[in-house]
Write a structure and sequence with these properties.
alpha/beta; nine-stranded mixed β-sheet; five-stranded antiparallel β-sheet; 21 helices; about 35% helix; globular; GAF-like_dom_sf; GAF; P-loop_NTPase
Length: about 650
């Protein structure tokens, strides 16, 4: 267990960054010291009693606000319970000189500064600074006014407070000294970091308000571009534009169902984490000064081309301090992306079902990760599968000359595959458990030098993995949709699976349908769809999820008897589609109803009506198709034809189906 940056997962760092926004109850004022520390899980247990910034959701002292805190507390507890790093972490210092009852300082000269200090058994330490507070008019002036002048290079009271807080709580820390901050807190973390470079410091900032580039000396500027400093930016977050930035480390996409309000883009809850707890779909970048002068916020590769030996030495140094298996895999992909300039990197795992062996993606470093996680590739389907099942490293300079089908991967990534590398992962040649794959090189194709480097880096990573003695079994999960209550999974359906579920009554069936649609989640329940977690407070996101990814056959049982024309129903559907280029005649022809457009629905035969329902569900290209109860009077034999057709779609990895009987 360790507070070392090389071991902490992104999801653990995000927990620490968000926790600082929940202010301890008044009775805990000034109780925390290095002599009388508080365990991290004790703080988490107090979250529901905490005062809080308006920031974490613009919530008030209401029942809604209380439920919000309970949900975030449950989220923190889940992370803490599964963490290998946070178990022995204690809080050694807490300062909150906000205005109002939630401030814990005796100093009358309040500045709205908030900081938490941490330590572990290995004598590593960390400090965390919060972003802007908005609960008091005076705080608004101090916080946002401070952000404005800080972007111009003015050292504010907050900066002085932050450096004093760091110096006080890092006294006696002999291990790593780490600094974390979000938003304005990231600005403070940057300031402390560049002014304490001679100490064993690292920094991790998310959506940080930049510190003024032009007031830094060359040593400080270069220090921001090293691996000791991470600056994470969520896609489209505007905060980085508050001043000039030349040191962005990674960009992280929001999940596709998130609302695009500033609070969601800038906050913590709308990015995804992979099975290992690292940011999902994040791109490794190191932006250079010259590139940023002409273009902002694009992904750029390393500033300097390194030799093979230099790359390996840098990589070995990077991995030496890592003891966490999740960090080992994620860091390996990050480093390989950086030196090869690949557009995507994927770690595939091998598994087996009733149809035989297959591979599926465990970690994906690509902005299109959400679609890629749907894939399930069999032998003969692309070079990653070939690498796994034949145990051979493969280098494809020109994918157009490669004969194995790659259609599923191509469609999921939304691009033409031009060049690939795949290296098997295994304990030895006879025990291959997966593969590491690179897809497409920026500005060209992969070279033999890239292939040799990826092979050597992968072997180095595997050596460390073997020495760790850790198991991969906990990370095998191929669910598209699952409902979890507390720590228990109450329902799950596998990706591309065909599941039938029987009910004793229509009321029981309707309750289940509402549950898997996210319409009746309880406070301690979560709906997880394609690795993205939804809780009952995310109704807007759940609505967007249902619209984009759910299709319900027989959703409206009265449609069978409607006098509406087929063309009217199809036109209404096409207006809702994400791709409005599909025309009415094309859709009708696909359904076998091109000569029935003017026919009323109640005049269709049962077989024609089934084709209409099936076509309306599949034309939406939803990931999940739910077959509701059979409408009264509909031919059972025709219904079975529908189910058989959907089974074939599942076998083709085109959809996931739940049939409600």
């Amino acid at each position: 267990m360790s507070l070392k940056m090389s071991n902490l997962l992104d999801i653990e760092k995000y927990l620490l960054l968000e926790l600082v926004y929940f202010h301890l109850p008044p009775q805990y004022k000034n109780r925390i010291t290095r002599e009388t520390p508080m365990k991290l899980d004790e703080y988490i247990d107090l979250v529901e009693q905490c005062g809080y910034s308006i920031y974490p959701g613009f919530i008030s002292h209401s029942e809604h606000g209380y439920q919000y805190k309970k949900r975030r507390q449950a989220h923190f507890k889940r992370i803490y319970a599964s963490s290998d790093n946070l178990g022995d972490v204690v809080i050694t210092g807490y300062v909150n000189d906000n205005y109002g009852s939630y401030g814990n300082t005796a100093d009358k000269n309040k500045t709205s500064f908030v900081g938490i200090a941490l330590a572990d058994r290995e004598n590593n330490g960390a400090v965390i600074f919060s972003g802007c507070e908005q609960m008091n008019p005076t705080s608004i002036v101090l916080d946002w006014g401070g952000c404005l002048i800080a972007s111009l290079g003015v050292v504010t009271v907050h900066h002085h407070k932050a450096i004093a807080f760091y110096d006080h709580y890092m006294t006696g820390i002999l291990g790593e000294r780490n600094i974390l901050g979000h938003s304005k807190g990231g600005n403070l973390a940057t300031y402390v970091y560049i002014n304490r470079l001679d100490e064993n410091t690292n920094a991790y900032c998310v959506n940080a308000q930049p510190y003024c580039w032009y007031t830094m000396d060359e040593t400080q500027k270069e220090a921001l571009k090293t691996d000791r400093f991470e600056y994470i930016v969520h896609a489209n977050d505007p905060t980085r534009k508050a001043s000039y930035v030349s040191y962005i480390s990674r960009t992280a996409p929001l999940n596709r169902y998130a609302t695009r309000r500033f609070i969601d883009i800038h906050g913590f809850a709308e990015v995804n984490f992979d099975e290992f707890g690292n940011l999902e779909g994040a791109r490794v970048i190191r932006e250079t000064v010259s590139q940023l002068k002409s273009r902002f916020f694009n992904d750029y590769a390393a500033e300097k081309r390194l030799t093979h030996d230099e790359c390996m030495a840098r990589f070995q140094e990077k991995l030496n301090e890592i003891t966490s298996l999740p960090r080992l895999f994620s860091t390996t992909l990050d480093e390989i992306l950086l030196v090869t300039e690949a557009r995507a990197a994927i770690i595939w795992f091998k598994d087996e079902d009733d149809r035989g062996p297959f591979i599926y993606p465990l970690i994906i470093k690509s902005p299109g990760a959400e679609d890629l996680y749907q894939l399930k590739l069999r032998p003969g389907q692309g070079i990653a599968a070939q690498s796994v099942f034949e145990g051979l490293p493969l280098y494809i300079q020109d994918s157009r000359q490669y004969r194995l089908p790659v259609g599923s991967l191509k469609q999921a990534m939304g691009l033409t595959i031009t060049s690939e590398i795949a290296v098997p992962l295994g304990i030895d040649e006879a025990e291959v458990f997966g593969a590491l794959e690179l897809v497409n090189k920026r500005g060209g194709v992969f070279s033999l030098e890239d292939f040799a480097l990826v092979n050597d880096m992968t072997l180095t990573m595997l050596e460390l993995f073997k020495k760790s003695g850790q198991s991969l079994d906990n990370y095998r999960d191929f669910s598209l949709l699952q409902i979890r209550k507390g720590g228990q999974r109450t329902f799950a359906v596998e990706k591309n699976g065909f599941t039938e579920k029987a009910f004793a009554s229509p009321a029981e069936k309707n309750a289940f349908l509402k549950k898997i649609s996210g319409l009746s989640l309880e406070p301690n329940e979560r709906l997880i769809f394609n690795r993205i977690t939804f809780t009952r407070d995310k109704q807007e996101q759940l609505k967007r999820l249902r619209k984009q990814e759910y299709a319900i056959i027989f959703e409206n049982p009265h449609l069978r008897h409607a006098k509406t024309r087929v063309s009217t129903v199809l036109i209404a559907l096409l207006l809702q589609l994400r791709e409005n280029r599909v025309n009415l005649n094309t859709v009708a022809k696909m359904m076998g109803l091109h000569d029935k457009l003017k026919t009323r629905i109640n005049d269709l035969t049962d077989a024609e009506y089934i084709r209409l329902e099936y076509g309306m569900a599949r034309i939406r290209r939803s990931k999940l198709v739910i077959v509701n109860s059979l409408p009264q009077g509909l031919n059972l034999a025709v219904y079975r034809v529908l189910c058989n057709r959907l089974k074939k779609d599942c076998q083709k990895k085109a959809v996931t189906v739940i049939v409600l009987n």
